[in-house]
Amino acid sequence: MTNQEKQYFLDILKEVRDGENSRFVTSKQYKHHGKTSVYKHSLNVAYMSYKLAKRWNLNVDYRALLRGALLHDYFLYDWHVGELRRPLHGFYHPGKALENADKDFDLNETERDIIKKHMFPLTMYVPRHKESWIVCMVDKWTAAIETMKRR
Ligand SMILES: [Fe+2]
Ligand SMILES: [Fe+2]
């Protein structure tokens, strides 16, 4: 990626992280896959999604792609602890992430679609936009690598 493209990634990250109502940094305290925090995982997914779209020269909304990817797991709890949520986390968290993100950010339709549908096909919601398909695929791949790194 060019320096300009990298700078764009950092600008969007800053916007999401330092937004007036943002709780994005709190995701640093929640472990996700292996030793990777939700914060780091979200950055990994956003960066890889962006890189792929750039590499393939896709005609997508890059701002929405990055913001949606950064917020796709904005569920803000530790899914490894606690009662009923844990086994159902896979089904439950996209809705929770969207609810939180809607509260803290002004999202567009593509960003909402990315967050809500990133667990397809586990959840039945079929991604509607190219941006959502990219994040949905990259998320699974990234999660697998993060989980393997644990060993
Ligand atoms: Fe997720
Ligand atoms: Fe994820």
Describe the overall structure:
With 151 residues, the protein is an all-alpha fold. The protein is built from 6 helices and no strands. The chain has a single domain, classed as Hypothetical protein af1432 (Orthogonal Bundle), CATH 1.10.3210. Helices cover 61% and strands 0% of the residues. Helix 2 (38-55) packs across helix 6. The protein is globular and about 45 Å long. It binds fe (ii) ion (FE2) (2 copies). One fe (ii) ion is lined by residues 41, 45, 72-73, 139, 143.
List keywords for this structure.
single chain, 151 residues, mainly alpha, Hypothetical protein af1432, 6 helices, 0% strand, globular, binds fe (ii) ion
Please provide a brief summary of the model.
This protein is mainly alpha-helical and 151 residues long.
Can you lay out the helices and strands and say which pair or pack?
Elements (H helix, E strand, L loop, with lengths): L2 H15 L20 H18 L6 H10 L13 H20 L4 H9 L12 H20 L2
The chain binds fe (ii) ion (FE2) (2 copies).
Strand percent estimate: under 5%
Spell out the helices and strands N to C. Answer: HHHHHH
Unique bound compounds: fe (ii) ion
- Major beta-sheet overview: none
Going by helix content, strand content and strand pairing, the class is mainly alpha
What is the CATH class name?
A: Mainly Alpha
Oligomer kind: single chain
Tally the structural domains.
1
- Proportion of helical residues: 55-70%
CATH topology (fold) name: Hypothetical protein af1432
CATH architecture: Orthogonal Bundle
Task: Count all strands and give the number.
Answer: 0
Number of helices, where a helix is a run of at least 4 consecutive DSSP H or I residues: 6
Shape category: globular
| Amino- and carboxy-terminal Cα gap | 30 Å
